[in-house]
Specification:
By secondary structure, the chain is an alpha+beta fold. It contains ten helices and 16 strands.
Length: 351
């Protein structure tokens, strides 16, 4: 296991794995941009297909809107298999849920699972850091198992200290439950870094109860977000957590896109799964690892970002009437809309 910090660390190793592939490459990603680093991935995937490697690529119809047709044309011309998951036309049949997974599996030998899409945002430019995110590189038997089960939809795999969970048509509640179990068992510390943090009441209560029983609970949240309403909805929750003894920090140096947690310095949860209603119905990934070495890598990443983040105190939550209306009312509207949309998608999927 190796934890990779953002696109700067992850992309070279991912490209190297594709370039060395001899049998099979499976890439599943929400957003795939053709330009910049995306052109390097397209070239590597096309070259692999042309030398006889079985190449399968799945991109999301919404996340890769405007890019998917050209990606299909380029890769299919090279002999790769490409699927656009739920293109926009599927909205007319009510298929609005997304494939939000980020998986690269090469030769059942090495896998990369995390929150990173393919795009230059994760690299940064002109002295500005890229989006803050993580990828876990895995090798060994867990990759063999993953290769055998990728088409199964709902998957739960285990090898030694590693558990890999993919949500299928059963939804993401099992992934949420993994987080809850880790929080319930925490004895000393819980540190969460989440880009889109809109937990349900049960999850909120679990964090506050942990803090009240003496566990150090810290949240690293987005001070800058690519989804404005998501941040407004999250800020509504600050006072509840702060009054419960939870410490909050906002990362503002770049966009926070990570979805990770470290519990008691020995358990890491990382993947594409957000703590929000939409991740309960989208296709998602979560890796649950009980290993002090990789947890230490994650804690080093978290501590580095916490040191540079802005601590949020109760006095920062005071608002004028206009601010309360903008943040609380619009944030509440955003939260309720997200929940309603997720419930609608869930019903459609069950049918």
């Amino acid at each position: 296991m190796r934890l990779l910090d953002g696109g700067a660390e992850a992309y070279p190793r991912m490209l190297q794995a594709i370039e060395s592939a001899t049998r099979r490459v499976h890439l599943e990603v929400y957003t795939f941009e053709r330009e910049g680093v995306g052109s390097s991935f397209l070239a590597a995937l096309a070259a692999a297909a042309q030398r006889g490697v079985e190449v399968r690529v799945i991109v999301d119809g919404w996340g890769s809107i405007g890019e998917s047709s050209a990606i299909q044309a380029t890769l299919r011309a090279a002999g790769a298999k490409v699927r656009v998951y739920n293109p926009l036309t599927s909205l007319f049949t009510g298929r609005a849920w997304r494939n939000h997974r980020k998986i690269l599996l090469v030769d059942e030998r090495v896998a990369f699972i995390g929150g990173i899409n393919i795009g230059d945002d994760y690299l940064g430019s002109e002295g500005e850091p890229g989006w803050a995110d993580l990828v876990l590189e895995l090798s060994g038997d867990i990759c063999v198992q993953l290769g055998a089960k990728l088409q199964a939809g709902r998957v739960e795999l285990a090898s030694g200290p590693v558990r890999v969970l993919l949500s299928g048509f059963g939804g993401g509640r099992r992934l949420r439950q993994r987080y809850l179990e880790a929080i319930y068992r925490a004895k000393k510390q819980v540190v969460l870094a989440h880009a889109y943090f809109l937990p349900d009441r049960g999850f909120m209560h679990a964090l506050n109860r942990a803090a009240k029983r003496g566990v150090s609970v810290e949240l690293l949240l987005a001070g800058r977000s690519d989804v404005v309403f998501a941040r407004a909805a999250t800020m509504r929750l600050y006072r509840y957590f702060l009054r419960g003894g939870v410490r909050i920090h906002e990362w503002t140096a770049s966009t926070l896109h990570a979805k990770a947690a470290v519990v008691d310095g020995r358990r890491l949860l990382v993947g594409s799964f957000n703590l929000d209603p939409l991740s309960l119905v989208n296709l998602e990934t979560l890796v649950d690892v009980e290993d002090e070495a990789v947890a230490a890598q994650a804690m080093a990443w978290l501590e580095k970002h916490l040191r540079s983040a802005r601590p949020i105190l109760l006095e920062h939550c005071k608002r004028t009437g206009l601010q309360a209306w903008l943040l609380d009312i619009l944030g509440l509207a955003g939260a309720r809309l997200s929940e309603a949309f997720a419930n609608f998608m869930g019903r459609k999927r069950r049918r």
